[in-house]
Design a protein that fits this description.
single chain
Length: 195
Amino acid sequence: MRIVLVGVALLATAMPALAHTGGGSASGFVAGFGHPLLGLDHLLAMVAVGLFAAVLGGRALWLVPASFVAMMAVGGLLALDGVGLPMVETGIALSVVVLGAAVALRVQLPVAAAMAVCGAFALFHGHAHGTEMPAAASAASYAAGLVIATAVLHATGVGLGLLASRASRLAAPWAIRTAGSLVALLGGGLLAGLI
């Protein structure tokens, strides 16, 4: 329980404005790896995907994060091809709210439905990542860094969720629900900032 709460507290201290500046001198792998780590919106959503997968268990542990990564890549390719996506920042903020709420409420969706929800939100995240790729960056190395960082964040969420559920059968639902509630509240703050 303490590990989950400390993890969420650490996530809340991330610098939210840096993920969407489009600036910086880093390129390629380093820029791709850093992008999801430097913005509270991306960080919370990607860890929440892992927590949600842990809540669902079974095949969802790897299928839900994999669907996010795959659709994030599609969103990135759309951005690189110049295909616009409406309300990207709103979609990203909504993903934090919805995924946090799904964790908090321990929503039990069929795996395919959970994959679809996470994949739909991943399009927005991928589009933002692709749009903000530094001009000098190699698309392949940027994408590799982005995918690896995203997988690490998903694995962190899955690990925290599994650790909490094994740490104490009585405290785990409370800890996971609290983490999800905090994510959803922070997402609400991000969403309110867009309106």
